[in-house]
Amino acid sequence: MHDGRTAFLACMWAMCTPGTPIELACLPRVEGHPELDGAAGVLLALLDRGLTLGVSGGEVAHQIAAAVMAETGARPGNVADADWALVHGAAADAIACARRGSRLSPERGATLVLAAAAEPHPVSIAGPGVDGQAEVWLPLDEVAVRAFAAANSAPPCGVDLLIVTGNCVIGLPRSVTLGVV
How many whole angstroms separate alpha carbon 24 and alpha carbon 1? Predict the structure, then answer.
């Protein structure tokens, strides 16, 4: 049974402790892919009317997004213009084209929810919420790490990333820097 409050709190903890996996305790059980189920739980907790959701992925990701929008009242959009994006599969292109906000409205930068089933790779991370520079293991390939760095190269503009690996969420706010190890 899904509990939006616990998913919301998990996402907030994940954004406050970048690179640290935070357990998603109650998932909605809407799909056989654990990473998409976890992503649906995150989106159900964080979306509401007035927000737009873009999708980068196959048919199953589009079906999950449609179910989330029907439940939350969020509207469909394309990844380049959406407030939020569900990403299933390769993430670099979605990160590269996502909305980044502006100097006067940095809050208009998108948040991407990456449903990740890839093997984790070592990545260096630094910034607020990280003790100095650390090495973390993330299911992001080198191209996605570089896309995240490029998308966030003009602070305070950029994108935020919530990586969902089934029953865990990992937050990467735009304020952190990533590097390939």
Answer: 12
